[in-house]
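Re-run with default settings, no changes from the original entry. Doing this only to confirm the output is reproducible before filing.
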Amino acid sequence: MSEEMKKNSYDESQIQVLEGLEAVRKRPGMYIGSTSVKGLDHLVYEIVDNAVDESLAGYCHNIYVTICKGNVVTVTDDGRGIPTGIHPKQGISTLEVVFTILHAGGKFGGQGYKVSGGLHGVGASVTNALSEWLEVTVYDSRTGKEYYQKYSRGKPLFPVKEVGPTDKTGTKVTFYPDSEIFETLEFEYETILNRMREQAFLNAGLHIVFTDERGEEPVVNDFLYEGGVREFVEYLNENKTPVGGIIYVSQQNESNSAEIALQYTDTYNENLLSFANDIRTVDGGMHEIGFKTALTGVVNDYARKYKFLKDGDPNLSGEDVREGMTAVISVKLTEAQFEGQTKTKLGNSEMKAVVSKLVSEKLAAYFEEHPNEIRAIIDKVIMAQRAREAARKAREAARKKSSFESGQMPDKLRDCNEKDPALTEIYIVEGDSAGGSATQGRDSRFQAILPLWGKMLNVEKARADKIYGNEKLAPVITALGAGIGEEFSLEKLRYHKIIIMADADVDGAHIRTLLLTFFFRFMKPLIEEGYVYSAVPPLYKLTRGKTVRVAYSDEERDRISSEMRGDNANVKIDISRYKGLGEMNPEELWETTMDPEKRTLRRIEIEDAVAADRIFNILMGEDVVPRKAFIEENAKYAVNLDY
C-alpha cells in the first residue's frame, strides 16, 4: 500500500481507546461545560455535591469549603466517609475506584443513596482527572480508621494507605486544578459563595462554612438555615415589599418529596427557581409544569368561588397569576431523570402529578384559611390581568403607529446592508452627536446604529403596558425585532451582536444599567445566549508630535506615557481625557471602539440569576436604603470620573 493510501485509510488502527480518565482530560467540556472559570468552579461543586448527598442521606451535618492561598481548594464533611474496603469487582480499594473510574458511585440503584444530585457518578473522578494533584483523607465510620491517597492528573501515586485509628468521621478532599486544562486558575469567589448559600437554603439544618483565604485576611461565610426554602424566599425578597406572607407546602413519601415556598411582592417580575435533588433546573421540567398548572387553577377557582371574577370574565392567565411572585420549588426523588450531564431540566413525569396534587390540595386549603391575605393577592393578580390587556392594546396601537409588523424601522436607525442576523451587529449609542460619528465611522455592510437620547424608562418600576409606545424603548424593540416578555422570540432577532455604547461617566453608566435592566426583565434570552455586549471606549488620548495613542485605564495611560517618552524623561506627552463619545471624530471612534480588529467588547453574562435579580432590584427598585448600602460597599471599585 502506498504512503498516500495509508494516510487516507480508515480501519481498526484509527480507532482510539481512551483508558481510565483520559477521556475527561481529552474532552473536559463534556463533563464540566468549559475550561473557563465556569468549568474551574465546577470542580468545587462536584466535590461539595458529594458531601451534600451524604447530608441528604442523613449522615452529614457540616461541610467546610476553603479556597486556600494559591487557589488550592479543600472540602471537608462529617459524613460516613467514602468506603475504603476492597471493591468486589475491581479488586482495589473502593476509595480509589471512586476517584479513578467514571460512573462509579453509590448512586446507581444500590442502597448507598436514595436521593442524589450526583446522578452520573462522575464528580470525584472528574475533579481528580482535571487536577494537577488531588489528595483525599477518609475518616471511615465503618472501620474507625483514617485512610489517605494522593493522585497526579487522575492517576494514583500509591495504593490507599491506612494511617491509623481515628474518632472522626467524614471525607477531606484537597486539590489543585491543572494549568494544562484551564484558562485560569483563579476561582470566582462570588459565584461559589452564591452556590454554597443556595445549597444551605435547600437543605434545612445543613451547616456550610465557605472561607476564602487568598486575601490579606480570610473571608469567612457561615450558612445555616433552619427554615430552608422559606428562608430562601425571604432572602430573595429582602429588598421588596411583600403582599402577604410566605406560603409553604410540602409532602414526602418513600420515593420522593416536594417542598414549595412562595410569596407575592409589589413588583411586576416573576422569580421562580426550581431544583431537583439540589440541582438547579434552569430549564424547568415536570415539577415546574405541575406547579404552574395547579397554581393557576387554584387562583382561578378561588376567584370564581368568591366572585372576584364574574361569570362572563375570562380566566386569569398563568402569566397574570405569577406576576410579582417569588417561588422556590425543591423536589427530591430516587431515580431523577435529567437531560444530560448539565442537569438543567427534570424529565420525571410523575413529579408533575406529585407537585400538582400538592399545590392543588394544600394551597387551596391555605387560601381558605387566610382570606384577608388572599384577597390582597387576588386583587394584585386581577390588576395584572388588566395591565396585560392594556399592554395588548398598547402593543397594537404601537404597531399601527410605527408599523411594527410591516418592516418599517425607527427613523433614527441607520441600518446595515447585510440581512443575515449572524453576521450583523447594532450599536445602541448614547446621544445624537455620538450617533452621528458612529454612523459616519461604521462599516455599513454589517454595522447598524441606533442613537438614543435622554434617560429612558426604568422598567424595574413599570409594567409591560408602559413599555410599548414609550418613545425611548419602542425604537429598541422595533429595531431588534424580537418582541418582549412572553412574545419574545430569538428567531426574529435582527442582530446577533447588540452593543451598548455609552460614555465612560456616571450618565453613561446609568444608561447602560437602564438598558441592561430592560434586557434582563423583558428580553432575558438576549443575555443568556450571549448576544449583549458593552463597548469599551478609551478614557485617554496621548499625543507626542504626530504620534497619537489611546488608553483604556489609568494604568494603561501611565504605561503608554512611559513608552512614548522612551529614554528621554523630559519629553512632553499631551494627555487629554475623553469627555464623551461625541468628542471623537468618526475615524477615532472607528479605530478605538468599532473596528472588530482593534476594539474591546465586554460580553454581558448572567453568572447567577439569583444574584442578578437581587442586584437589579437593589439598583433600580424603590427602596433607597439597600441601594445606598450597595453604593457605599462598592465605591472602592468605582473609576475616578473627575476630569
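The CA atoms of residues 117 and 277 lie 5 Å apart. The first strand starts at residue 62 and ends at 68.
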